[in-house]
Amino acid sequence: MSATQILILIAAYFGVLLVISYYTGKNDTNEDFFRAGKQSPWYLVAFGMVGASLSGVTFISVPGWIEGSQFSYFQVVLGYMFGYFIVAYIILPIYYRLNVTSIYEYLLQRFGVVSHKTGAFFFFVSRVLGAAFRLFLVAIVLQQFVFNAWDIPFEITVVISILLIWIYTNKGGIKTIVWTDTLQTLFMILAVILSIYFINKSLGWSFSEFLVSDELKDYSKIFITDSFLERNHFIKSFLGGMFITICMTGLDQDMMQKNLTCKTLKDAQKNMVSFSIVLVIVTLLFMLLGALLYIYANKYNIAIPLMDGKPKTDLLFPEIALNRGLGITLAITFMLGLIAAAYSSADSALTSLTTSFCVDFLNIDKKPKDQQNSIRKKAHIGMSILLVITIIIFKYVLDSNVIDSLLTVAGYTYGPLLGLFAFGIFTNYQVKDKYVWLVALCSVVIITIMGSIPSEKLGGYVLGYELLPINGLLTFIGLILIRRK
């Protein structure tokens, strides 16, 4: 598939998103931008959230990770599902009872202004980094297979990607995203299913033959239980996945903002439970695709593509889909899936960052009515520029698998949120609000030091995703120390 063909496909897809944006953004009000008028059908939100949760990271990085980790990531996914039930039945009721726009308003009501700002700050950092990780992954694929052909710099690729997202989310915000995410999820699921079909066909297999093949057995080990010292031991992965979900969904404005557009709490819970089941199934399909990609690469001696002179496993899927003669249908399917993955996570991230910044930091509801729309639009532009800068920085500092980097960073940035919300939900204590930021900062510093300790000094124990609950526990203990007597 040529660079020109890919560009035409992107333009056509973007045209569809603009049409959706036109119809959903007619009101151009903050109520629609932030909350979609609380009229979203739960099943629409649930389906769209699958795509937003998967994003370009799952679409490309999970398949590329299979050779190094096999199916051990599924242990984390099982933890995700358990975490979604906790979000649905413990956390969501609190938000609906308080009728919040930003979920960090809970911290304001529970503890005070400093706690509110601290929670919003850690979300802000977490979401900027998370969104930048996801967009970086898509940008390097577009750069490798489209814009390099025209000698367009990576920085311009990033600016174009963010500009497109800004245009169609500028008016409708979360109301637009609820509908566009549904379309994008459909394309992502269709892409993985058709990719599995076409690659199996080229190998002379049916899907059932692939599932029982000896080649698949080389990649399909799920449970790691030999030694608890291992980074991806089942217990560590499962618990890590559970806490990642609680934090990156239940304590994350990006994901919760969609849930809060549902009419009732019961609808939001149905959304969360059904979404979690579908997500597990779809993620398993992506891991099967990853095994299939490596089987195909080994058979035809396809090397891992290089980026800046280094092998980049995240580029294996696009390399096979676009450059290995498997047909235009697979190439189009891949690109539609990739574009969908890019926009489904990035558009909601941009909207949630704008929402949090306006509500939590600018106190937009206290501004004059005639200024509120203008403030929101300026914040939207500012968040777009911030994402552009962060993604460009990643190009020069990020050298590991993107999904592993994303989950690792979550352990540092979401821990204080976990501790703050857990303390607020499970205790009746009040705290000395002015010291909360210091507790959160100390927790992150301690976790950063712990994460840098070589495994040899820990008796061979490799720290992994359990850093997140440990971080939350440290914050919880710190809050106990500053509780009011």
Radius of gyration: 22 Å
What is the residue-averaged pLDDT?
84
Major sheet characteristics: 2 strands, antiparallel
The coarse silhouette is globular
Given as residue ranges, the uncertain stretches (5+ residues, pLDDT < 50) are: none
Describe the 3D structure.
By secondary structure, the chain is an all-alpha fold. It contains 20 helices and two strands. It has helices spanning 3-24, 30-35, 42-69, 73-98, 105-110, 113-145, 154-169, 174-202, 207-211, 214-217, 234-250, 253-259, 265-299, 316-323, 328-361, 369-397, 402-413, 415-426, 436-451, 467-481; strands at 306-307, 310-311. It has a two-stranded antiparallel ribbon with strand order 1-2. Strand 1 and strand 2 (310-311) form a beta hairpin. It is globular and about 70 Å long. The N and C termini lie far apart (68 Å).
Write the layout of secondary structure elements.
Layout lengths: L2 H22 L5 H6 L6 H28 L3 H26 L6 H6 L2 H33 L8 H16 L4 H29 L4 H5 L2 H4 L16 H17 L2 H7 L5 H35 L6 E2 L2 E2 L4 H8 L4 H34 L7 H29 L4 H12 L1 H12 L9 H16 L15 H15 L4
Antiparallel strand pairs: 1-2
Helix pairs in contact: 1-7, 1-8, 1-15, 3-6, 3-8, 3-13, 3-15, 4-11, 4-13, 6-7, 6-15, 6-16, 6-17, 7-15, 7-16, 8-13, 8-15, 12-15, 14-15, 15-16, 17-20, 18-20, 19-20
In brief:
By secondary structure, the chain is an all-alpha fold. The protein has helices at 3-24, 30-35, 42-69, 73-98, 105-110, 113-145, 154-169, 174-202, 207-211, 214-217, 234-250, 253-259, 265-299, 316-323, 328-361, 369-397, 402-413, 415-426, 436-451, 467-481; strands spanning 306-307, 310-311.
Features:
globular, 20 helices, 485 residues, mainly alpha
